[in-house]
Write a sequence for this structure.
């Protein structure tokens, strides 16, 4: 396992996958979420400050990935994501309405 990954918490399957890669064929990146006030947090999109007891997510988020191998200005890839309000749970039963 590469030295820079030795102290990270990885599942057994992720460790096996990384061990199967040749050294130097991958880059380990830590994406973060950038908020309006330039605060940097993890990639969890849940809004813990909502007033209800239900799980809610931010409608718009920006995930930033810093990379040495991405050939864009500043070597940052910004993913601008919008909440999908039309997700359907697996196993949902539908009925045809005439």
């Amino acid at each position: 396992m590469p030295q820079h990954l030795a102290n990270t918490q990885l599942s057994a399957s992720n460790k096996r996958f990384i061990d199967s890669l040749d050294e130097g064929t991958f880059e380990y990146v830590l994406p973060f979420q950038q908020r309006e006030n330039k605060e940097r947090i993890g990639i969890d999109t849940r809004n813990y400050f909502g007033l209800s007891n239900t799980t809610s997510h931010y409608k718009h988020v920006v995930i930033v990935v810093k990379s040495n191998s991405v050939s864009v200005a500043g070597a940052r890839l910004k993913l601008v994501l919008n909440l999908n309000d039309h997700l359907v749970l697996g196993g949902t039963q539908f009925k045809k309405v005439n």
Observations:
- The chain has a mean pLDDT of 77.
- Residues 12-20 form the longest helix (9 residues).
- The two ends are 59 Å apart (CA to CA).
- DSSP finds one helix and four strands in the chain.
